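Appendix B. Raw example, untouched.
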Amino acid sequence: MDYSVSRLAENKLIILYLVEKMGLALSNSEICQFSLEKNYMDYFSVQQYLSELVEAHLLKKNKHKNHTRYTLTTEGKKIINYFIQHIAENTKQEIDTYVQQNKKRIHTEHEVTARYFLESNNGYDYIVKCSLCDNDGTNLMEISVPVATKEQAQIICNNWKNNVSRLYGTIFSALVSNGK
């Protein structure tokens, strides 16, 4: 096999292996960040490979709200299992290390969002939107809170991100209780 064809195939396998090991849907920027950080591929190659992997039904492109994420298809899992030996051992180790160091952060970034924006039409200056999603991007909870100041908005965003489990549990329990 010609070197360039072999390299192209390995690069596609690297993307598939990364998505598989991460175990959750990855955004274009997350895949690019990894590939560029490790000097495996340039930005344009990553874009081409992602497009080709989607076209070949090895990755599925999921659009949810303003986010596009990639997940491994059943066929993609078969391919990575069959051709895994074509990825260099040191490359697999680098991917495994990257996943171990970044999975929790990426997972949390996908699940928990808190943003605020200027909104002066309602008598308040800011609206804070906080949400919690499950692994496939389905909203478990979304709240919007009007506040008077930017500082309040920032505090709510930080508190939501840092205490989401407790807040979700408290709000959910209050909503499903029978008023006792």
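End of appendix B.
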